[in-house]
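Lab notebook, bench 4. The sequencing result for the construct came back, and we need a structural model before the next group meeting so we can plan mutations. Quick request posted to the team channel:

Model the 3D structure of this chain.
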Amino acid sequence: MRMLMVGTALMMMTSAAMTFGAMTSSAMADDDDDRNAQKLAMQGRDDYWHCLAREYSRESNQGLSEQDFGRSVAGACPSERQYYRVALLDYLAAQYPNIDAGAHLATANRAVESAQKDIVTAFVKHRPPQK
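Done. Here's the predicted structure in token form:
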């Protein structure tokens, strides 16, 4: 139950990266593209979080230090991480086409880093005390 609560809280923290934009009725095709990009970005986020949650709950990680767990998380879930990054980039480009692609990449990278940092923080806060 605690994992579910932690996972839910962590997903909510990165949702800020995917702000919902207002859409006009004259751009129905663009609306569909925007909704699809948003859906894919949210799915990518969820898939990445679920993978990180599996990493969090692996029995073999329970004795790791914060630094070792952080390194483990940084290398975990490479396909989910990349899909999330690309889907978020596509969403940001659709929502904010006039903003430089480099800024979108930086935002997507910060979202991935934030997810990793949040799972490490949860790991440290919820691990049993050292004997």
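The first helix runs from residue 2 to 14.
Will bring this to the meeting.
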